[in-house]
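Please check this:
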Amino acid sequence: MDAKTYWDQHYTEKVFAQGKAPNPFLVEMLPRLEKGKVLDIAMGEGINAVYLAQKGFQVKGFDISKVAVERAKTLARETGVTIEAQTADLDLYLFGIMEYDSIIMTRFRPSVSRYYTNIMSAMKQGATLLIESLGVPEMPEAIPQSESYRNLYYTSNEILREIKGLRILFYQEGLVDGKHVVQCLAQKPHDKDAARLKLFDMSTKGKDLESSKHLELAEKLFKK
């Protein structure tokens, strides 16, 4: 069973299985998130996206499950907020360059290292990245054998290795409410060269890009 089919089936059978309250770690770290445009990766049914919209963020999110995304849109309408939600696979998702003030990723673990490069490139200078998912328990054999579910589990210090170059504002591994979790809040440092060149708020739509040369300069900065 492929990931899309798995998660469509999961969300069809389990409607708001975790409830409609936002992720507690997100709520705790909200004051430390950079306000503005936020991307919710693997947004699920949109409980975190809707919460952030209620708090004044401009929210964009995506998930591989069409069932989950439609439920997120419905939740936003019922709550009276606006979010931009789309069905997309992380493998094919086109990130903007320096587009987001914050990015969040909860109950999800990218399986390929290059995704983190894309995520960090999409962050503006000073942007924040919030990650929380399950951690490998003391007995790894306790991890479910389903491939889709097993990919939720981070190994020890895995996140720290993947986001080198970001400033770690908060990090912990351990038991939270009886579950082994990994929690991280990080920030992208300000780059004096990027500031001098005014390479901020670049999006995939191109309307904010003054020239292709500007884009080339931004890409060179990310390769430093």
Notes: Residues 66-79 form the longest helix (14 residues). The chain has a mean pLDDT of 84.
